[in-house]
Design a protein that fits this description.
Layout: E1 2-5, H1 9-19, E2 23-26, E3 35-41, E4 62-65, E5 68-72, E6 77-81, E7 86-91, H2 95-110, E8 115-125, E9 128-133, H3 140-147, E10 152-154, E11 157-163, E12 166-170, E13 181-192, E14 197-200, H4 203-211, H5 221-237, E15 240-245, H6 251-259
Parallel strand pairs: 1-2, 1-3, 3-7, 9-13, 13-15
Antiparallel strand pairs: 4-5, 5-6, 6-7, 8-9, 8-10, 8-11, 11-12, 12-13, 14-15
Helix pairs in contact: 4-5
Length: 261
């Protein structure tokens, strides 16, 4: 959770609509969350952003200035003090700047706490979370749509973490995720194919596939090393599969039969 201070009522409403399950939004930022964000509304939307709910996936430059991370989105800017757990953002009324800010908060605050974000979809199967990862176009959203919204935790970024010897997955605010945490059932590198089939990967190969989708924006060398170790720990505790899927009737049933045999 993050407490958000924003005097502008339109922006507050927008954040609550998109991220209400993961943030407490008010005019004064009152709350008991570990993190606080202060938002000042300035300027207007650029021509390439047609709707204030639109999220632009173009990477945002992040610069390190001592203990503070600075973000420069050209039409918005902000800073994040990881040590003080305070973030500031100046932007027009739009989701994208806040989305960019909290992604960086998640990535950098998690690096020292055995947690990370991975580009993936996450689905509950028998009370465990199965994480389907891969580059854009690999089939993650196809899996998410086949699974249905009731069991979907996230269809963009998924939180992974170690808690003692247990590997866990967390829903995130990104793309209407749900604030649900559960034990990790499996990691799945998904790709489009002619039929549904799966192969269990060796640990080193699973690590290689997964690392390509781990988010490390704004991390220094020490942070990247910490995340690398967390990924290694998670892969050691969890089976990693390579899954081929095809758009076909009964896809979700076939996926479950293939993975949870």
């Amino acid at each position: 959770m993050i407490d958000v201070e924003c005097p502008n009522p339109e922006m507050r409403s927008l954040i609550h609509r998109a991220y209400g399950a993961f943030s407490s939004v008010s005019s004064d930022g009152g709350g008991n969350s570990e993190w606080k964000a202060v938002i000042r509304v300035v300027g207007s939307l650029p021509p390439h952003i047609e709707r204030n709910l639109e999220v632009d996936k173009t990477p945002i430059p992040v610069y390190s200035n001592g203990n503070v991370l600075e973000i420069d989105g050209k039409w918005f800017n902000g800073c994040i003090d990881i040590a003080k757990k305070v973030a500031e953002l100046s932007c027009p009324v739009a989701v994208h700047p806040f989305d960019s800010l909290i992604r960086i908060v998640y990535i950098n605050s998690g690096a020292s706490n055995s947690s990370l974000l991975v580009h993936a979809s996450a689905v509950l199967i028998d009370d465990k979370v199965w994480v389907f990862f891969g580059p854009s176009g690999a089939g993650k959203s196809t899996v998410a749509q086949a699974a249905g919204s009731d069991s979907l935790l996230s269809d963009e970024l998924v939180g992974l973490r170690m808690e003692g010897d247990l590997s866990l997955a967390d829903g995130t605010p990104f793309w209407q995720g749900q604030p649900i945490s559960a034990a990790l059932g499996g990691l799945v590198a998904v790709e489009m194919a002619d039929n549904v089939h799966a192969t269990l990967l060796e640990k080193a190969e699973g690590m290689r596939f997964l690392w390509k989708q781990v988010q490390i924006v704004g991390l220094d060398a020490g942070g990247v090393q910490s995340v690398w170790q967390t990924v290694a720990d998670i892969v050691e505790k969890t089976n990693v599969f390579r899954l081929g899927i095809a758009r076909q009737p009964g896809l979700w049933s076939d996926i479950k039969k293939t993975l949870v045999a």
